[in-house]
Amino acid sequence: AKVVVMKDIFPLEPFIVNLSGESEKNFLKVTVHLKLAIGECTPFVEPHVPEMRDSILLLLSSKEYEMIKSVQGKMELRDEVFERVDHIVKGNRIKGAFFTDFVAQ
């Protein structure tokens, strides 16, 4: 079987954070994949990974469980993640952000 490598998809390591709010038991685990404008954008994206992870971690940990449990809440969070990485990696190199794993409890 031939493995297809998507050159325009850039996976980030999974994020695990404690959610904000009254309960200290709520946590969120997400995996984010970035869609790049072209596959050759990878060298422009890789140096920004620590800054992107920091920004995404701060964003995720600022959320409360109630804010992200609905489909609408997840979509808004996905858009916010995209806005943050797009702001960090200049030049319209990132076209989208996708959750490939999302566990909140």
Our measurement of the CA-to-CA distance between the termini, rounded to an integer number of angstroms, reads 37 Å
Q: How would you describe the oligomerization state of the chains in this entry?
A: single chain
Quantity of strands, as a count: 4
Percent in helix: 25-40%
What is the overall shape? elongated
Helix-strand pattern: EEEHHHHE
Structure description:
With 105 residues, the protein is of the alpha+beta class. It has 4 helices and 4 strands; from the N terminus they run βββααααβ. Strands 1, 2, 3 and 4 form a 4-stranded antiparallel sheet that branches. Strand 2 and strand 3 (27-36) form a beta hairpin. Helix 2 packs antiparallel against helix 4 (71-88).
Key features of this structure:
four-stranded antiparallel beta sheet; 4 helices; 27% strand; 37% helix; single chain; alpha+beta; 105 residues
